[in-house]
Amino acid sequence: MARPPPVSYSVLIARNVQRVAAGSAHSLVVANGSIVQNAPVITTQPLSRTVVAGTNATLTVAATGTPAVQWYHDGVPVTSGTSSSLLLNSSAPSDAGIYDAVLSAGSSSTLSAAAVVGIVPAAGQRTAGSVTTRAEWQNIHHSNGHTYDQYLLSGAAGTFTADPNQIARMSYVDTNGSIVQVEMSGAGAITVVLANATGPGAPALYNQSGIQYMRGKATIILAGADATTHFTIYSVGTATNPGVTRPDVTYNGWADVAVAGIVSSNGLLGGIHQGNASYNSGTGFTGIYAPTVIGMSSLAVVHEISARGSATPICISAPEARSASRSPAGAGPAQWRQRHRRRSLAGPDGRRPGLLWPCRCWAGHPDAAHRRRRRRCHRRPCHWPLIPG
């Protein structure tokens, strides 16, 4: 069942009222129409949080009156989520995602703000959930001067971290059959949760024997981030790893992702590098939701956000967000618009530039009308000009 859109009503239904005496209470008979309750007014919004794997966490929402509550996790109703508090018992990587709640009174309803829940491994652990690696995949010294740790998603959900001064990467196969690499450096942890997960199985489009990948549509959550944290998503193709590609295959060229959420520990983030990621979904949210990020030390590059069906396109940072960098040198409004085309042309460096952060699609506008208007931004950016720094 898809999350219903919020609806608000006024309580002025009476017509042709002749006279009402002042003073005491009176009964009012309405000849035409009906009395409809006001939509609940939310007084406490759920808050984004970072949760240590294996511990409990609670999301809370409160409103005027005694409305019925239904919690949603990535657009899917939570079976036990029908009270004002949602308990995540012994939190696991599968609990990571974006949560919100619909509060209903009669035929009126109100949608809460969304909250990102991220998972980090327990103290002393590098991973949580379904993650595997090999000894030869650790401390790989690349010709670019960086040192990598490679992980493989081995189930529907897994969390990984990066060692200091190194880059960590986890791999899976998306719905197009492309291998997707999710990378991070610095503080925090990334969780990948696959919807309709299958596998593990061989990557049919690649020359890579002996390695089994999980396949599905990913929700990717970065938690515990700060100014040292950099977050990258890209798909494997002839430009990124020609050693495993096949000459008889035409690769999609885009990492197929549902949504990404970010929880910062101090309001800061190092950067987002996702010019090759295509965010799209028919339910819940699609795009990047980072309600706790106020500033970044470098540019964020986000390319495509496409909502269909009941999905809501998002590209949101905290309302007070400012980026330390603006558009690249010399990039005026014309170039900025060029970077937002559905399939923007590769630049001189061979990369496809994308949406520059911060970009708030519907921050502060959780009403149904605004969500319907924004849904028309299919395969277009979900924010207009950059916020001045």
The proportion of strand residues reads: 35-45%
The average pLDDT value, as a whole number, equals 79
Largest sheet: 8 strands, mixed, barrel
Rg is 23 Å
Helical content (DSSP H or I, runs of 4+): under 10%
SS-based class:
mainly beta
Shape: elongated
Give the arrangement of secondary structure elements.
Elements lengths: L41 E3 L4 E4 L4 E4 L1 E2 L4 E6 L2 E2 L7 E4 L8 E9 L2 E4 L3 E6 L6 E6 L7 E2 L5 E14 L6 E7 L5 E7 L3 E13 L11 E13 L4 E6 L19 E10 L3 E2 L1 E11 L3 E6 L4 E2 L3 E8 L4 E6 L4 E2 L9 H6 L16 E2 L11 H8 L14
Parallel strand pairs: 2-10, 13-14, 17-19, 18-21, 19-21, 19-22, 20-23, 21-24, 22-25, 23-26
Antiparallel strand pairs: 1-4, 3-7, 5-6, 5-8, 8-9, 8-10, 11-13, 12-13, 13-16, 14-15, 15-18, 16-17, 24-27
Describe this structure in words.
The chain has 2 helices and 27 strands. Strands 13-14-15-18-21-19-17-16 form an 8-stranded mixed beta barrel. Strands 2, 5, 6, 8, 9 and 10 form a 6-stranded mixed beta sheet that branches. The chain has a 3-stranded parallel beta sheet with strand order 20-23-26, with no helix packed on it. Mean pLDDT is about 80; it is low at about 5-15 and about 320-389. About 5% of the residues lie in helices and about 40% in strands. With about 400 residues, the chain is mainly β. The radius of gyration is 23 Å and the shape is elongated. A hairpin with a 5-residue loop joins strand 12 and strand 13 (about 145-160). The protein has 2 domains: about 40-115, Immunoglobulin-like; about 125-375, no CATH class. It has helices at about 335-340, 370-375; strands spanning about 40-45, 50, 55-60, 60-65, 70-75, 75, 85-90, 95-105, 110, 115-120, 125-130, 140, 145-160, 165-175, 180-185, 190-200, 215-225, 230-235, 255-265, 270, 270-280, 285-290, 295, 300-305, 310-315, 320-325, 355.
